[in-house]
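S., here's the first fold you wanted:
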Amino acid sequence: MLGVSRPFASKVSKEPQRKAVADRLIGQTATVIEDFEGHEGLVKFDGEIWCAKSYDRIKKGDEVTIKAIDGVKLIVEKKEDNVR
């Protein structure tokens, strides 16, 4: 019964569907808040600080694009306009 009533209730209530966290983050831009050491560092996205991994050479202040999420770490790439 629950399998039938839940989809019906969400249609009736007209609540907007929420995207999963990964869907909201992938493709977005984050700012690096410390130089990456050993392919890992910290980035800030939407007011929150995240651990991140990348194989690019990334420095504090660079902007990166979020490509994926691996557990609680973001996988990022340096934005093209930052390439030094």
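And the second, which I think is the more interesting of the pair:
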Amino acid sequence: MKIRLRCIDKVLENNNIYCLEIAKKYADIIKNGEERNIPKYLRTKIFYTKEEYAML
């Protein structure tokens, strides 16, 4: 099972599209079509990178 949440930000002239995908041994954050490094993007080391989730 895979969960995908897609949000469109239209606040203050921003037109960003965010996508969060979560599945077993998989997680990804995509902003405007570009994959983001999860811990770096969220500014915390609490979360794993996409590659680390794959190794769980």
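Why I say that: Helices lie at 38-42, 50-55. The chain has a mean pLDDT of 91.

Talk tomorrow,
H.
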